[in-house]
């Protein structure tokens, strides 16, 4: 592997200072399941690797119905999936996070890393978007929030400015009659990167016969994960019928701008954007109805 | 670059080693500590041949920096067998002929150990899902799954 120096700071302030001193030359290490592979293959360069797992706030995981969910940027997928209350409240996020790799990857890979790596095909990001998640970042100018849908700015590129790091991901507590789901297509049963993915969430009214609001987000069909606002707008105020869902899924399909690569063709991805959006919406509605 | 001293507990013994920041745990286990039971397969986290248990969690040692082992407890394939002979998982791999060329076997046995430590009575589906991060190009997996489920039963009855 390429040579680099290593630091394991125990505070965010120290980390910001290291990032600032090594402007552009430092990389943050959480689980290493993306970073170490990229350093080995010289797809990314690092003069300094900063291990963030010794910073308490980045390792903290908390959820309460009052405060919502807060996931430290270095918390592993395994820890998130192991919390029954989080599994219950954030089904779309759990769908996505539990798909990321096998047991060996789950034990190390972090949600923060999945965001930071900014892959267009990152499974967790469409799910975070439909759960209205916000990324909390800190840098030399202090803390700021970036909505999950604005965190990625291009393939492998995120919205962090010089000296900034992702501290935590927050998601609000779901309201009553909320349901969410994430689905992806891969050519085998497990252990692959999405050809396309779709997340959906809905909030139903008290009677369960009207969608109050909804979100649809797509993965692997554009340079970044996409929030399809027009699909959500088409669902709001409508009954959760097959026709309404079909119309929203067609809107999602229409905003997909996929490419052809080794995983799939653009036309297959456009087809998948429709099918997966429809199925994710159906599942989100079923889950919302099951909470009544 | 200066080497970094690391203290860890490997297979129950306190160990101190020196490593470069860019050395993986896999490299140090094999090349510095002579623990060559852990195998290098893909070196990018796909195959599981380099599996070790790090503070109770199954990891690919090719994707862990050796410096990250500071203060941690590590179990490698060399630490699986007890003083009185093979671990039941190892014994069942032999009885079920769950290996051919053998390069993936240490990874599978360490992964199976981590599974049965967490879940003493896995269903076949749970075992298959847990072992999905371990690749074997010889056996077709079926004998491995049978060996692991049989070992689980043996461990529950002892």
Describe the protein in words.
The complex is a heterodimer of chains A (292) and B (158). Chain A is α+β, with helices and mostly antiparallel strands and 292 residues long. Chain A has three domains: 5-51, 2-Layer Sandwich (Uridine Diphospho-n-acetylenolpyruvylglucosamine Reductase, domain 2); 57-171, Uridine Diphospho-n-acetylenolpyruvylglucosamine Reductase, domain 3 (2-Layer Sandwich); 178-290, Enolase-like, domain 1 (2-Layer Sandwich). Helix content of chain A is 35%, strand content 25%. In chain A, the strands form four sheets. Chain A has a five-stranded antiparallel sheet. Chain A has a four-stranded antiparallel sheet with strand order 11-12-13-14. The N and C termini of chain A lie far apart (54 Å). Chain B has 158 residues and is an alpha+beta fold. Chain B has two domains: 4-77, Ubiquitin-like (UB roll), CATH 3.10.20.30; 88-156, [2Fe-2S]-binding domain (DNA polymerase, domain 1, Orthogonal Bundle). Chain B contains five helices and five strands; from the N terminus they run ββαβββαααα. Chain B has helices spanning 25-32, 88-95, 105-118, 124-130, 142-156; strands spanning 4-10, 13-19, 51-54, 57-60, 73-75. Chain B has a five-stranded mixed sheet, with helices on both faces. In chain B, a hairpin with a 2-residue loop joins β3 and β4. The relative contact order of chain B is 0.16. The model of chain B has no long low-confidence stretch (mean pLDDT 97). The interface between A and B is medium-sized, with 30 and 32 residues.
